[in-house]
């Protein structure tokens, strides 16, 4: 007789492995299915984030920034060096080692918490059963009280630029370059495109980013986006908005890309490498049996309610396969919520406070509403900003680009949004998220003591500036 579980999780990415661990912690008999294997045939845990996403891209971002600093900015600190070089294969090897350590760590956490790992491809059947097909073609059916679908997402491919292993790559391929391309094209000026473009631009590539939308970083606060566009231009990123790619042709070791600009004029440009970073799509093909009762929308996302329940009782879906931003931390929190709901505990994710981060330099991060969203909602509001150019700690670090922005309700003073471009933006926005989680007002932040000298004082000053009380900049006169 087949072994029966309380919870079977399909997928071991940040949503799936966190859900499985939390379920096991709550005393539920839990299995996690993973189809991805390494060259030795062992399960690759951690999903896109740990293997070919969040973690490896940050490793390359940090390595490339250290090189850029040494080459361009050490002299400001009085440091002199000889010719600074970059060993790209060594940089990639370091990235791979970090990935290996973390994915092995997930395996260790499964063992420590009693999660059963099952290698193979999971398919959701009717009656809350899951079929698992192993790499050798054999299969088994698991009986379970609850199924959690956490199969994640994959990069979107577009017909004008079919992937070519050597020249045209997606985000995964862009993490494996063994040398710096002289001319690099990036399709898509979103988070992935900007981060990967930044890595190779710092290392010496001439980078051109082609973005179909007319507005830069459309989901970010536009005051932040405009500052970011200026900074990236200064860094040498050539970002072309309203550029719709229509075709490509690989010739030997280069590719010619054709696109139409905002005025309808046709252009072509030659690159040594082309990264396609136009977004991601949910990985739901061949995942759900037609009679299972689980429904998808026209884009392949699984229909769920606010607590990630599908249309079938006992079947949940979390992470990139459901509505909302495709962010690892959002998926992880959904995983915790679902595990706790299955265990009979009350749980809910606060979808109003999902932080977003772009790990360029300077970092860009935000939580809550943008000024455009507040305006559209016809809410009366007030804004405080503070530039890092006036921060003593930022000056000491030679890192003064950008500013902090706090938006608050005019009547209640409750913080509606915190937006940062600058040093440690992700960490500062997290401070804002904590404050907002407790329904803080801008006055609450203004009355909080911040240590000196820190870059987080910029958040303090921006909160003070909401009511014209900033100390270290001249306050704007209120109407």
TrEMBL record:
Protein name: Dihydrolipoyl dehydrogenase
InterPro entries, per database record: Class-I_Pyr_Nuc-Dis_Oxidored (IPR050151), FAD/NAD-bd_sf (IPR036188), FAD/NAD-binding_dom (IPR023753), FAD/NAD-linked_Rdtase_dimer_sf (IPR016156), Lipoamide_DH (IPR006258), Pyr_nuc-diS_OxRdtase (IPR001100), Pyr_nucl-diS_OxRdtase_dimer (IPR004099), Pyr_OxRdtase_I_AS (IPR012999)
Family in the record: Belongs to the class-I pyridine nucleotide-disulfide oxidoreductase family.
Other notes: The active site is a redox-active disulfide bond.
Protein's cellular compartments: Cytoplasm
UniProt keyword annotations, A-Z: Cytoplasm, Disulfide bond, FAD, Flavoprotein, NAD, Oxidoreductase, Redox-active center
Annotated catalysed reactions: N(6)-[(R)-dihydrolipoyl]-L-lysyl-[protein] + NAD(+) = N(6)-[(R)-lipoyl]-L-lysyl-[protein] + NADH + H(+)
Taxon lineage: Bacteria, Pseudomonadati, Pseudomonadota, Gammaproteobacteria, Oceanospirillales
Pfam families for the chain: Pyr_redox_2, Pyr_redox_dim
Requisite cofactors: FAD
Domain FAD/NAD(P)-binding: 5-335
């Amino acid at each position: 007789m087949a072994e029966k579980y309380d919870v079977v999780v399909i997928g071991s990415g940040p949503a799936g492995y966190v859900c499985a661990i939390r379920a096991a912690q709550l005393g539920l008999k839990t299995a996690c299915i993973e189809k991805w294997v390494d060259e030795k045939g062992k399960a690759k845990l951690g999903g896109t984030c740990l293997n070919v996403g969040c973690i490896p891209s940050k490793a390359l971002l940090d390595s490339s920034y250290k090189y850029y600093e040494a080459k361009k900015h050490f002299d400001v600190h009085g440091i002199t060096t000889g010719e600074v070089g970059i060993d790209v294969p060594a940089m990639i090897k370091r990235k791979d080692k970090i990935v290996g350590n973390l994915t092995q760590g997930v395996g260790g956490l499964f063992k420590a918490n009693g999660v059963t790992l099952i290698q193979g491809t999971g398919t959701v059947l009717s009656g809350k059963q899951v079929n698992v097909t192993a790499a050798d073609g054999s299969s088994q059916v698991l009986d379970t009280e609850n199924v959690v679908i956490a199969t994640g997402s994959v990069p979107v491919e577009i017909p004008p630029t079919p992937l070519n292993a050597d020249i045209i790559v997606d985000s995964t391929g862009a993490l494996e370059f063994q040398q710096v391309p002289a001319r690099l094209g990036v399709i898509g000026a979103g988070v992935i495109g900007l981060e990967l473009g930044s890595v190779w631009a710092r290392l010496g590539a001439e980078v051109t980013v082609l973005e179909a939308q007319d507005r830069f970083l459309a989901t970010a606060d536009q005051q932040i986006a405009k500052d970011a566009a200026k900074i990236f231009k200064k860094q040498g990123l050539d970002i072309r908005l309203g550029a719709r790619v229509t075709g490509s042709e690989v010739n030997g070791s280069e590719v010619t890309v054709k696109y139409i600009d905002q005025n309808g004029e046709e252009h072509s440009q030659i690159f040594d490498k082309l990264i396609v970073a136009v977004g991601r799509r949910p990985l739901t093909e061949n995942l759900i049996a037609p009679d299972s009762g689980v429904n998808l929308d026209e884009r392949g996302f699984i229909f769920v309610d606010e607590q990630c329940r599908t249309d079938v009782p006992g079947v949940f879906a979390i992470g990139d396969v459901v509505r909302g931003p495709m962010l690892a931390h959002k998926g992880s929190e959904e995983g915790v919520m679902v595990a706790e709901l299955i265990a009979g505990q009350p749980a809910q994710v606060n979808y109003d406070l999902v932080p977003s981060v772009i790990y360029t330099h300077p970092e860009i991060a935000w939580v809550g509403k943008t000024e455009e969203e507040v305006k559209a909602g016809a809410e009366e509001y007030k804004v405080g900003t503070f530039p890092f150019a006036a921060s003593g700690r930022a000056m000491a670090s030679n890192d003064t680009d950008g500013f902090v922005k706090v938006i608050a309700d005019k009547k209640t003073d409750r913080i509606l949004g915190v937006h940062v471009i600058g040093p440690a933006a992700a960490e500062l926005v997290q401070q804002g998220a904590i404050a907002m989680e407790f329904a803080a007002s801008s006055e609450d932040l203004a009355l909080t003591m911040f240590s000196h000298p820190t870059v987080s004082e910029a958040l303090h000053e921006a909160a003070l500036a909401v009511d014209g009380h900033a100390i270290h900049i001249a306050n704007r006169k209120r109407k």
